Amino acid sequence: MGGHTDLARRFEEHRPRLRAVAYRMLGSLGEAEDAVQEAWLRLSRSDTEQIENLGGWLTTVVGRVCLNQLRSHVARREEPLLGDDGRVRLPDPVVSRAAGPDPEEQVLFADEVGLALMIVLDTLAPAERLAFVLHDLFAVPFEDIAEVLGRTEASARQLASRARRRVRAASPAPDGDGDREAARRREVVAAFLAAARGGDLNALVAVLDPDVVARSDGGGLRPSVLRRGAATVASQAIVFARLAEAAVPVLVNGTPGVVAVADGRVISVMSFTVRGGRVASLDILTDPTRLAHLDPEALAA
What we know:
- This protein is α+β, with helices and mostly antiparallel strands.
- The protein is built from 14 helices and 7 strands.
- A 7-stranded mixed β-sheet has the order 1-4-5-6-7-2-3.
- A hairpin with a 7-residue loop joins strand 2 and strand 3.
């Protein structure tokens, strides 16, 4: 494959895809970067002359690294994104300017991988998540997935099928992503913000799906909340009003969302899943530690 410099160049060509795989597997941008870096270390120590398909080799290596990380989470009994105690932990959002993300950001949330879907992925067992992510989202052959899992190809197929059913049941498809649908989603978000700013409960209920789910993650030092139903969610109008007043339009995992800015820093990220012209899920991240890296000026550019 040539010298070290050439190998590094070829690895960088695959980095966006590898980050996308790791992000879908782990739900953490930081852990995804660590997994990609581990793949590079393994590649640099390998006999590259024996690697026929570098992209496939790297994808399966990242998958294996992420699988081990997920199993470690389970072993340490870390809380899932929706804990039994009601505590909510959201995956890391990918926040971009409303005008559009850069190409590398776009790879991260292609295939409609919004926060709502990421939450469902986190409910899957590690092996199920790997089989679903690698096969359904990245078209990795079941033969290669079986090797990563140490199982038969038939078993890998069963895992992906089971995961697929759970994903479809728990995360119905949002409205389409054509220009017309995207414009409609922006209109729905704008209607939600207008109702929130005005404290109009009836208008809020009207823009919410009757079975809407609202999740709020404030981190370790702030309470987290999970609410269901239009009337229950709309009852938080005062909270929404405060965030809406400071709202700046952005894209969150490729779909319309907003960040709230105060004193020159981002204090919240709101992600909307719109289905049937209404807000079907609302995910709000207010954890100051995880928001500290966001630059409000760059997002408003």
